[in-house]
Amino acid sequence: MRGLVLGLGWMFVALGLVGVFLPVMPTVPFLIVAIWCFSRSSKKLHHWLYSHPQFGPPLRDWDRYGVIPRRGKLIAVIGMACSLALVTIFVATSWMVPVFMGGAMLLVAIYVVTRPSRPPIQASE
C-alpha cells in the first residue's frame, strides 16, 4: 500500500508541475494531494515538498491557515463558470446536466471564495 500511495504522490507532483506551464491547470491543489500522499508514504519526500522554495510557501499557508490566494480563487471560479458554459452549450442534451453540475460547482465556488486570501498578520511582525 505504501508503494501505491508513494506512486500517487509522484503522479500528483507531475500533474502539479504541468500546471506550472499550463495556465488552465492548477498547481497547488495537486501538490496538496501529493503532500498528503507523501505524509503517508515518505517523510523525506513530504519534508522536501513542504520546504521547497517555490511550492512550500503556498502549501504551508494552506496547511496552517486554509489560505487560497485571490488569484487562485479568481482562476478557480472563472474556470468553473467557463466549464459550465461549455458543457451547457456543447454537451448537455437535457437541462438536468447543467443544473446539477452548476449546483455542485456553486458549492465548490462558495467554499473556495470563503477561504482566507492570505495568512493572518502575526503580532510579532
UniProtKB/TrEMBL annotation:
Domain of life: Bacteria
GO cellular component: plasma membrane
Keywords carried by this UniProt record: Membrane, Transmembrane, Transmembrane helix
Transmembrane segments: 12-38, 74-91, 97-114
InterPro entries, sorted: DUF454
Protein name: Inner membrane protein
